[in-house]
Amino acid sequence: MNIAFASSEAFPFCKTGGLADAVGALSQEIARKENNRVVLFLPHYRNISNANSLKAIKGSFVVPIEDRLESVSLSFVNWGSVIVFFVKNAKYFDREGFYNQNNKDFEDNDERFIFFNRAVLESLKYIGFKPHIIHCNDWQTALIPAYLKTTYKTDAFFARSKTLLTVHNLAYQGHYSYKSFIKSGLGEKHYTTSGLEFYGGMNFLKGGLVYADKVNTVSPTYAKETLKSNETAHGLKDVLKHRGKDYSGIINGIDFEVWDPAMDSYLPVGYDDENYKKGKNICKNFLRKEVGLSESKTLPLVGIVSRITYQKGLDLAVHAIEQLKDKAQFVILGSGEKATQQKFKELADEYENIAVVQKLDEPMAHKIYAGSDIFLMPSRFEPCGLSQMIAMRYGSVPVVSKVGGLADTINKKNGFFVDSVDKEGILKTLREVVVTYGDKDKWDKLVVNCMQGDFSWDKSSSDYQKLYDELISKK
Length: 475
Hints:
Layout: E1 2-6, H1 18-32, E2 37-43, E3 55-56, E4 61-65, E5 68-79, E6 82-88, H2 90-93, E7 100-101, E8 104-105, H3 109-127, E9 133-137, H4 143-149, E10 162-167, E11 175-176, H5 178-184, E12 197-198, E13 201-203, H6 204-211, E14 214-217, H7 220-228, H8 237-243, E15 247-249, H9 276-291, E16 301-305, H10 318-323, E17 329-333, H11 338-350, E18 354-357, H12 362-371, E19 374-377, H13 387-393, E20 397-400, H14 404-409, E21 416-417, H15 423-437, H16 440-452, H17 458-473
Parallel strand pairs: 1-2, 1-9, 2-6, 9-10, 10-14, 14-15, 16-17, 16-19, 17-18, 19-20, 20-21
Antiparallel strand pairs: 3-5, 4-5, 5-6, 7-8, 11-13, 12-13
Helix pairs in contact: 4-6, 9-12, 13-16
């Protein structure tokens, strides 16, 4: 089976969040399955990793944007079992950021990803890779199914191609004005309430939900939540309900080779579930020294690794952190909303048991997962969440909201649920967790249960393969 993944990011080449981790790991898992050939398409951003190993493909071609043509050139790298192709156009992708700069979205993101969607389809033709499945991810590639059902409907090259759209987060939809629809060249007859029109504008994600052959999201509970609540579905509940059996939820996994406390090169020592106590203690003191916290034999260390956004609920955690500053230590890694960032910085400046690192820092993330005893994740909503699974892999016990993928991966044997997602609810639960930390036998069982959990991609990748098989069996 020929499978083409399309995404705006994938680890280890370009990453801002969980989308990159999921696409990178899943594409490799699918490629390892018998008789699968897998390619992955990414934008050729300025700051991609492994840029020196890329090989250019001779020649170039063009794709239409509104009333003009834009040039495309390709480069590639063999990455494990996957061939990764990078779509190059300096005008759109030779920039400092992927989607924004200085926390401000690029004004032409609509045009950039209209271009990328068309470029992926034309690239497949240019390299001669006829896909049975095109696996699209989030709004940045959601127009591919729309193009295949409209502009490319009679193109023999894609006669056997089916599309799967995976929605990693319904909060991000690519909602633009009518002018963006004109740029897409999709044709006025498709600008309807049952097509791409959305409150007088154009919604990339809605287009994918309407035109993809199958749609899934990244946990069974989140899928159910989005069918029940238009707020959780961010205005797209009815569109999702209309898809019926063609909409489902598959929980993400984590890459056990990337996230392995026994072999992690970012850590001072490795450890596993049989000898975690000594290893985590060394990692904890190493982390404390690096972020400026003092050593303590009694205080638990609470870690946070997150984008600081409304979704993640960290504005609600400020109160609990301040109240518990003498009962626990806290280290917070993340950037985002300025007001919450500033509050964390003020707490760190005032209290010795609180440390903050306000930037994207992959090595530091690994150190926090390994060095923390408790991992706090009080999300208002969470499609899947990878951080809680990574934390458990490293023996950091998660404290989470009972929503989405958090509800699918956490239970009383491996973590704690916040009583209510508000300031007092987070404080109450964290207090109870800190007390439980003092019961070493009970805590040891929690840590071992966390580390022995199977959050690999094995089952999930098999579920995706079943979706692919269902798709190509359809006429």
